[in-house]
Amino acid sequence: MSNRSLVLTIAGPLLFIMSASAQPFIKEVEAFRRVDSLTRPPEKPILFIGSSSFTKWTTVSTDFPGRHILNRAFGGSSLPHLIQYADDVIFKYDPRQIFIYCGENDLTGGSGITADSVLQRFQRLMSLIRSRLPRVPVVFLSLKPSPSREALLQVMREANRLIEARIRKMRHTRFLDVHNPMLNADGSMKPEIYVSDRLHMNRKGYEIWMPIIQPVLLD
User: Of 68, 84, 85, 112, which sits with the fewest C-beta atoms within 10 Å of its C-beta?
Assistant: First the structure.
């Protein structure tokens, strides 16, 4: 085998690995592209973006009948991924309203990620959105409590507090608290609203979210 062949043999897989690491979740984004090529998405939809709590809400369109809701959340994502794929999951749809559930996975990225880190990432995402969609209403849902992430509960609450305070200073932007309604009166978590992984919600969890979201959905 020549030296050139050896280089090509090594470089091929290496380039693939580098490309994959530079584009996490590219398979999910490409799936959205394929769906859009086969079925035209609604014009100026109400857009749901973020991580798996939205991804797994497969009945969101039928739960809010009469609205043109488009779900473009992809499980496992954090706020930097929404920034990275903003053209694919936000701007191409020219949404009339945007709902965001994201930030929970950010806190699993290591001890260096703090509540302030999540705030800074949220602000970068909002700056990007406002550079292209200055008046579109944006609704950010608080980070939810999860039994499997109980160790992160305090930092989640702090991230929620920081983001809510920042949103109060923003125009056309709202903060929805879904965290506290998911707790019992004594502050403990409700195990019955989660699936077996103790992270993702079952139908009972989404039924807590629905009356919180309903009043702020555009007609």
Answer: 112
Instruction: List, for residues 46-79, the tens digit of each pLDDT value.
Output: 999 999 999 999 999 999 999 999 999 999 999 9
The CA distances from residue 170 to 49, 105, 109, 136, 216, in Å, are 19, 24, 27, 12, 16
> Could you write out the DSSP letters of every residue in 122-154?
HHHHHHHHHHH-TTS-EEEEPPPP-GGGGGGHH
From its phi and psi, is residue 37 left (phi > 0), alpha (psi between -120 and 50) or beta?
alpha
CA angle 73, 76, 79 (to 5 degrees): 70
The first and second tokens of residue 6, run together, are 């050896």
pLDDT tens digits along 133-163: 999 999 999 999 999 999 999 999 999 999 9
The helix (H) or strand (E) run that includes residue 160 is helix 153-167
Amino acid at 119: L
Is CATH 3.30.360.10 what the domain over 41-216 is classified as, yes or no? no
The structural domains of the chain, with segments of one domain joined by +, span 41-216
Whole-model pTM?
Answer: 0.90
Which residues are 49's β-sheet partners?
100
What are 122's two structure tokens? 């949220």
Rounded to an integer, what is the distance from CA 47 to the centroid of its chain?
11
